[in-house]
C-alpha cells in the first residue's frame, strides 16, 4: 500500500478528496509531518442543492493530531465556487469546521481532555497550543450545541445560586429538574440575573407559560422573577433551604446561650448535625446538654421535629403536621423561633406546595457541588464568560457530536 493511500485511510478521506503527497520536515528540535490534500480534477461541489464548478482555490492549513510523536499539519488548496447570485464562496471540507485552523479530530481531543477534568491551560500545553485557543475551540463547540438544543418541554425548573470564586461573582443557575441538566445561567443573583437565565431558555424554545413548577429558596429576587415572567408556575420552596433556615435559628440560640454558659462552647456541630448521624457518645452529650440548658434543648428538639415533618411530605400531602409544628414552635416563646415561624407564614404559598408536590431542589444542589469541583480544578475563574461556558460544557448535557 502506498504512503498516500495509508494516510488517506487514516484521515478517513473519501472521493473527491485524496492525499497528494506527504513531507517530513526535520530540524534539531523536532520533526513535523505535512500532509497535502487535493481533490479530483473536474469535481463540481454542492451548494444549497446545486452543483457548481470550481471558480478558484484558496490555500489553507490545519493543525491535526500528532502522528506518533510528530506534529502534523494538513494542507489543501480549497476550492471556491461562484453561486447563481455571483457570490464567491469557500467550499466546506470534511476534516475541519468552517473558519477553523484545527481539524475536527484535533478539536475533539482537546474537548475530551477538558471533559476529563484537565484545565484548558494544561490541555493546551499538552497539545502544543495556547490555553486561549482551547477556550476558542470549546466556545465554538458549546455555542453550536446550545443553538441546536431544544427546550420546548421544560416544565419544572430548579433555581439556585453559585459563585465563580469564594464569595465573589455570583451566578444564577437554572436546571431542568426532569432531564437533570443546566439550561440557563445569569450573572448575579438578582432579578436581572434571573431574567438573563430565562432568556437562555426562551431562545431555545422554552415557553414561560408551560413552566409549571419552580423549586427554589426564599430569595425575594427569584420570587419576583417567577411572579413577573412565569405566570403559570407554582413556587416550591426547597426543603434543604427550609432546614437550613431552622439550623440558623439553632445556631443563633446557641451563640446567645454560650455567652451565658461556658459549657456550651465548641458544641456548634453537635446541635447542627442530624441526630441520626451522631455516634452514641455524641447523642449522650447532646441529651445531657439539652436537659441542663432547656432553651437550646427545646430549640434542638424543634429542629429535629421540623425535619420529621418535612420527611412526612413524601408520604402525605396533609398540612396538619406542619401546622401543628408551627403552633408548637410559636408557643415556645423563643424569639428566633417565632421569627422563623413568621417567615414560614409569609411564604406559605411555597411551603404548602412542597407538601403537595413533594419535590426538592436536590439536583440543583448536586449541580452546585459539581460546579465547586469545576472551580477547584481551575482554581477559580476570573472571566465570568469562561465560567458560564464550563458550566454548560460539563453540566448542560449538550450533544457536541464529536468525531470518532
Number of helices: 15
Mean pLDDT: 91
Q: Looking at this structure, what is the CATH superfamily of the largest domain?
A: Ribonuclease H-like superfamily/Ribonuclease H
Shape, per Cα inertia axes: elongated
**From the coordinates shown, what is the CATH architecture of the largest domain?**
2-Layer Sandwich
Helix/strand class: alpha/beta
Given as residue ranges, the uncertain stretches (5+ residues, pLDDT < 50) are none
Give a description of the structure.
The protein is an alpha/beta fold. The protein folds into three domains: 1-101, no CATH class; 156-238 and 360-395, Ribonuclease H-like superfamily/Ribonuclease H (Nucleotidyltransferase, domain 5), CATH 3.30.420.10; 239-356. It is built from 15 helices and twelve strands. The longest helix is centred in the middle third of the chain and has 20 residues, at 239-258. The mean pLDDT is 91.
Draw up the topology in text.
Elements: H1 3-11, E1 17-26, E2 31-39, E3 45-47, E4 50-52, E5 56-67, E6 70-82, E7 88-90, H2 104-115, H3 120-127, H4 131-147, E8 156-165, E9 168-176, E10 181-187, H5 191-202, E11 213-216, H6 220-229, E12 234-237, H7 239-258, H8 268-272, H9 280-292, H10 294-312, H11 320-331, H12 335-346, H13 348-357, H14 362-378, H15 384-395
Parallel strand pairs: 2-6, 8-11, 11-12
Antiparallel strand pairs: 1-2, 3-4, 5-6, 6-7, 8-9, 9-10
Amino acid at each position: 500500500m502506498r504512503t498516500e493511500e495509508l494516510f488517506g485511510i487514516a484521515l478517513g478521506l473519501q472521493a473527491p478528496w485524496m492525499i497528494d503527497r506527504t513531507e517530513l520536515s526535520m530540524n534539531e528540535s523536532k520533526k513535523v509531518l505535512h500532509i497535502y490534500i487535493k481533490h479530483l480534477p473536474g469535481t463540481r461541489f454542492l451548494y444549497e442543492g446545486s452543483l457548481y464548478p470550481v471558480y478558484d482555490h484558496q490555500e489553507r492549513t490545519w493543525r491535526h493530531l500528532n502522528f506518533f510523536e510528530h506534529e502534523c499539519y494538513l494542507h489543501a488548496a480549497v476550492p471556491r465556487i461562484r453561486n447563481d447570485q455571483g457570490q464567491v464562496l469557500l467550499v466546506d471540507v470534511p476534516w475541519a469546521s468552517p473558519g477553523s485552523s484545527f481539524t475536527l479530530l484535533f478539536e475533539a481531543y482537546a474537548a475530551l481532555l477538558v471533559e476529563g477534568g484537565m484545565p484548558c491551560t494544561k490541555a493546551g500545553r499538552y497539545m502544543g497550543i495556547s490555553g486561549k485557543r482551547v477556550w476558542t475551540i470549546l466556545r465554538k463547540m458549546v455555542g453550536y450545541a446550545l443553538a441546536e438544543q431544544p427546550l420546548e418541554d421544560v416544565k419544572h425548573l430548579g433555581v439556585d445560586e453559585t459563585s465563580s470564586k469564594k464569595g465573589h461573582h455570583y451566578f444564577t443557575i437554572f436546571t431542568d429538574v426532569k432531564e437533570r441538566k443546566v439550561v440557563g445561567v445569569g450573572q448575579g443573583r438578582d432579578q436581572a440575573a434571573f431574567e438573563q437565565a430565562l432568556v437562555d431558555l426562551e431562545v431555545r424554545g422554552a415557553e414561560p407559560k408551560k413552566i409549571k413548577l419552580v423549586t427554589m429558596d426564599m430569595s425575594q429576587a427569584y420570587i419576583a422573577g417567577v411572579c413577573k415572567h412565569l405566570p403559570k408556575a407554582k413556587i416550591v420552596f426547597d426543603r434543604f433551604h427550609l432546614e437550613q433556615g431552622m439550623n440558623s435559628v439553632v445556631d443563633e440560640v446557641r451563640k446567645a446561650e454560650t455567652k451565658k454558659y461556658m459549657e456550651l462552647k465548641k458544641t456548634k456541630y453537635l446541635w447542627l448535625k442530624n441526630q441520626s448521624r451522631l455516634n452514641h457518645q455524641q447523642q449522650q452529650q447532646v441529651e445531657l446538654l439539652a436537659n441542663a440548658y432547656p432553651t437550646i434543648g427545646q430549640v434542638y428538639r424543634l429542629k429535629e421535629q421540623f425535619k420529621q415533618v418535612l420527611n412526612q411530605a413524601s408520604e402525605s400531602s396533609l398540612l396538619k403536621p406542619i401546622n401543628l409544628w408551627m403552633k408548637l414552635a410559636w408557643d415556645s416563646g423563643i424569639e428566633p423561633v417565632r421569627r422563623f415561624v413568621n417567615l414560614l407564614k409569609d411564604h406559605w404559598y411555597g411551603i404548602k406546595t412542597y407538601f403537595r408536590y413533594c419535590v426538592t431542589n436536590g439536583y440543583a444542589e448536586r449541580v452546585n457541588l459539581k460546579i465547586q469541583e469545576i472551580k477547584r480544578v481551575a482554581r477559580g475563574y476570573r472571566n465570568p464568560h469562561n465560567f458560564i461556558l464550563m458550566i454548560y460544557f460539563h453540566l448542560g448535557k449538550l450533544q457536541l457530536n464529536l468525531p470518532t
